[in-house]
Amino acid sequence: MRKRxxxxxxxxxAIVLAVSLLAGVVSAAPSSQAGxxxxxxxxxxxxxxxxxxxxxxxxxxxVIIPVGGTVQWTIGSDEQHTITFLGDRPRPEPFLPPxxxxxxxxxxxxxxxxPPQSNAPWDGTTYVNSSPIGRGQDFxxxxxxxxxxxxxxxxxxxxxxLVTVVPAGAPVITSQADVDNYRTSHIxxxxxGIAQLQAVRSIPVQEAGPNxxxxxxxxxxxxxxxQGGHVEFLAFLPDNVTVSQGDMVIWYNDDPVAPHTVTFIPxxxxxxxxxxxxxxxxxxxxxxxxxxxxxxPPPAGVPVxxxxxxxxxxxxxxxxxxxxPSLLYNSGIFSDDVPPAGSAxxxxxDAPGTWQYICLIHAEDGMVGTVxxxxx
Length: 376
Known about the structure:
This protein is mainly β. Helices cover 11% and strands 33% of the residues. It has three helices and 25 strands. Strand 1 (37-44) and strand 2 (49-55) form a beta hairpin. The longest helix is centred in the middle third of the chain and has 26 residues, at 176-201.
């Protein structure tokens, strides 16, 4: 998030740094170039629009390659994704429930953010995960055995793919030209629908409130549920609303997959940490207070820090009325299926002026809004 607002790339770096303390080293993505390489774009879109799809032409986003071939995925969106082959594991969640010692904070899952890596060709039986990577970053897997290998993005359940590996010399494999042509044409097909949906869902919605006030409704993120539900909007819609003193703004998230926050940061203050680090003594510190990870694994039996949810995960509400801009107002995580904020968040506005707010997770993508309050 720009300048003093925590950027998502910095957020993920902080997560990886904190989680890597458990192992003593930050892993690098595996790469091995044993045979022909097929290059696939993972995701598309810029800033507040994300097309969450592996852009390949086969049914179910599938490709066919020979044994010994390599697939290289490159992220093509500002939204981050993972390339994850589960092997024999259940799908891991990015955050685990609090335990008896985490002070009610969810625990960052190292299998998602800092998974083990290997440069060896993959036989299809083990867990392989790129970790979250962003625009222009790539991840490669070389396939050592024939078979059908599904893979997923751990952040976007609708984003799935399949690599079918056939014996070397098989007559039917996916060509790079087929992949490139599909990517170009498919992204173009989405554009008219994206523009139309943004326009429709940005129309202000109001209704009468109590005592001659007005209720203003704002989407905190949304999704196009047609065409596989691949198009996601990381935006407040509308992103600017004008209200009168005493009016209430109600934000709602109609995309239960993507969590967001509604966060008003006081001028000159840093945003609350979305990720924090719990030290072996149980204390909670900001990732900015940590130095670089140690140069090797910690000695056996030595307690190590772990990454947990930061203060930004939880609501901070001095009152239910936004009357003092020098105070932090934060919804906490904001999604249908993620506590504690639920799927709606509301503030009544009493302080005249124009007040900016952000989503702590997606502000770098442009998920920023304003509320202008006029004297009544």
